[in-house]
Amino acid sequence: MTSTLNGTRSRGHAIARSLLTDTSPGTTDADFTRWYAGRQAELRQKVDRVRLDSMRGWHLAPDTGNLEHVSGRFFSVRGLHVRSDFGPVPEWYQPILDQPEIGILGILVRTIDGVPHCLMQAKVEPGNCNGVQLSPTVQATRSNYTKVHGGNAVPYLEYFRDVPPERVIADGLQSEQGSWFYRKRNRNMIVEAPAEVAATENFRWLTLGHVRRLLATDNLINMDSRSVLACLPVDGDAAAEEAGPGGDDWTAAVRASLRPDAPRLHSDVATLSWLTDRRAWHQVVTAPVPLRDLPGWQRTRHEIAEREGRWFSVVGVDIEASGREVAAWSQPLLAQQGVGVTAFLVRPIRGVLHVLVAARAEPGYLDVAELGPTVQCVPENYAHLPAAGQPPFLDLVRAARPEQVRLDVELSEEGGRFWHTRNRYQVIEVGDEVPDDPGPGFRWLTLHQLGALVRHSHYVNVQARTLLGWLRSPA
Description:
- GO terms for molecular function: lyase activity.
- Pfam families: Hexose_dehydrat.
- This is Oxidase EvaA.
- With about 475 residues, the chain is α+β, with helices and mostly antiparallel strands.
- It has a domain at about 10-45 and about 100-245: Alpha-Beta Complex (Nucleoside Triphosphate Pyrophosphohydrolase), CATH 3.90.79.40.
- It has 11 helices and 24 strands.
- Strands 6, 7, 8, 9, 10, 11 and 12 form a 7-stranded mixed beta sheet that branches.
């Protein structure tokens, strides 16, 4: 049985109901395991590292040495000169991915037996460390969905073009990694299906609660899915009504934090003023430079890498894959050095869960700074710096006791652009050792405050969106 999500109140209750439902009649844990194993066996790919100058369809620009696609579309790898007063290093050079196109990341929602389900896709990407991961219903750049590659059409794309307003649940432009992308944005959409849309073999209808539970599994829910799911509007009052009484102190603090009238340390106006001040206060000045002779980086036939082996490198790959719009292609990928740490410190304040966000300035952001996790770094990159240059609060994350850890999962970043790039995502509960005023670059916000900001563009970064998607559940 299928019904539509009509009206703000009914939609809020339906979303809360889906968050509280961790399986569905057609997708038990055993059903999902069998389906996912089948997709892993069927959707195979062969990925070989190749020389940067031998990638099919790519060339090194003769005047700059930039890596560019022969079509002039998709993306390129360019050089960037950065000067910034944010962090311990005031000036540097780096490669950066330049992808000016706005792609579509979309999840289709259908109500089954009174519970909204998301249409999730088993998708293989060349940079995934484990082959198949769960992606949104649609995950496509403009070059992909306009078929610049000459391949097949993107399944279900028609549901995200010219959508009637009443079927739009969430829709916004969101940034991606500002340290690796130059002003990249994707359209993050959640759309209600107009009819009983069937799931083809590489797709599965799952409840929001089921997807959230799977998010705690290493390298299963991909970055694009996590980004879109964080844009979901969660009605705190509806969630409390659907959840009913009961639960432990943690659950009570989370439910209180989802409510729009929950007590908070900082008003919405004060929060926006603080972020605006950070954006105005910090200077991040960028200028394009040729990739060929990038200071501090060395170039071989197989990679472009930082001379000290830190940060990341640029590599080339050749791919043969099944279940994709194109069966074979080449491309560059960015490879992070080491496994990163991405963590929210959280604590109940007057019975309401607050998360400690950081105003992070990164060279690729469109508007200087966005709200990010408390800690977001690869610790090895800071090992050569003195104590004053270490990321704030990293020591608390590393020293967390087991009973403080609410989430600890390794998750891959987007396998279409990054090679085996993984970060350890954590939610760490702390106490009064982190004060109400933790310093000018940090603020305690409720889940409702952070969720409201996600509904707008360029406020909450992609790493924080991953953690927010897991945290915002009344279960």
